[in-house]
Amino acid sequence: MKFTAAQIAEILDGEIEGNPEVEVSELAKIEEGGEGSLTFLSNPKYTSYIYSTQASIAIVNSDFKAEEPITTTLIKVKDAYKAFSTLLEYYNQIKLNKQGIEQPSFLSDSAKFGENIYIGAFAYIGEDVKIGDNVKLYPNVYVGDNVEIGDNVIVFPGVKIYSETIIGNNCVIHSGAIVGADGFGFSPGEDGKYSKVPQIGNVIIEDNVDIGAGTTIDRATLGSTIIREGVKLDNQIQIAHNVEIGSNTAIAAQTGIAGSTKIGKNCLIGGQVGIVGHLQIGDRVKIQAQAGIGRNVKDDEMLQGSPAFGYGDFNKSYVHFKNLPKTIDTLNQLEKKIKNGI
Q: Pathway, per Swiss-Prot/TrEMBL (predicted)?
């Protein structure tokens, strides 16, 4: 699909400098752009490339002033990075704009569907499922009984959504994610064997949530595991039963959150963080990668280490830790001098 500079400028409310009829059909980095490609410049670090790029169109900030001749057609906007992101979203919507029901697939007679839906081949839709408008379920998606899915939801191939799950509007769930599997509930007996504790709760995912590939979210033992509005989850995250994650919290890959822990709003959690169960994590908390959290955390704390402690204290301690061999040598030398009466 091709777009002219004039069409792009209209979408972005931008001003053209150059040929309004030049066409592009692909997106590229500014240093790699070729004829027929669209790129952008927002970071001053890459300014030199604007004079050498072969891209046909470049989006730049409105205050950009060329200091050398430029062959590329420019589209000037208030914020080049934001404008390019808008364009990527627009492009993605066009690319993913599928409709209809492919065969073979199974749709229960009791399921209810909104308008403009897409259901890919080999999908399974269970009993009493409710699916909203503009929903896209890609091939091999499983949707269990009594699931509710809101409007404008995209579920990529191979996702498994267990029964009773509720998903809000404008959510994206990437391939291989599993939502609503049993929580890890077992009771030890006197004979040393474990008995299964039934997991009869569900998962609730509110609006505008993104769930990365391979992430798993367990259903609650009782009640609900809740992912609040605007949460962003990276790939391969484990969220246990009865966890609650507050709105607009972002969590990086391979983090594990044990059962019944409550995480506040607007938190940032790095990769490979481990959080034990039944904790209260406050709002706006920042946890560095590979930290181990074993205590309740107050609002606005920044933590690092395992077990984690204050970010500033960790950095001060790490300076001493790196110098520990020298410190030990010094102490050994002082000990020898004391023993020798020097």
A: Bacterial outer membrane biogenesis; LPS lipid A biosynthesis
Query: How far is residue 46 from each of residues 59, 67, 87, 130, measured CA to CA in Å?
Result: 13, 14, 20, 48
How confident is the model over 224-259, as pLDDT tens digits? 999 999 999 999 999 999 999 999 999 999 999 999
Q: Let me know if residue 200 belongs to a domain.
A: yes
Q: Which residues contact 72 (CB under 8 A, 6 or more apart)?
A: 18, 33, 50, 53, 55, 56, 57, 58
Count of CB atoms within 10 A of residue 255's CB? 24
Residue 234 lies in a domain: yes
Q: Quick one: 261 exposed, middle or buried, by C-beta within 10 A (0-12, 13-18, 19+)?
A: buried
Question: Total structural domains in the chain?
Answer: 2
Co-location of 144 and 237 in the same domain:
yes
Q: How far apart are CA 233 and CA 185, in angstroms?
A: 24
CATH number of domain containing 153: 2.160.10.10
Phi then psi for 80, rounded to 5 degrees? -65, -40
pTM for this entry: 0.81
Are residues 15 and 105 both part of a single domain?
no
Element housing 84 (H / E): helix 80-95
Give a yes or no: residue 160 inside a domain: yes
In the predicted model, residues of the chain with pLDDT beneath 70 are 308-309, 342
Instruction: Provide the residue range defining the domain that includes 73.
Output: 3-95
Residue 176 contacts residue 165 (beta carbons within 8 Å): no
- 246 touches 269 (CB < 8 A): no
- The domain boundary residue, chosen from 73, 95, 117: 95
Contact assessment for residue 306 and residue 274, using Cβ atoms and an 8 Å cutoff: yes
Separation CA 143–CA 136 (nearest Å):
12
* Residue 328 domain flag: no
Q: Give catalytic status of residue 241 as yes or no.
A: yes
Query: Are residues 205 and 301 located together in one domain of the fold?
Result: yes
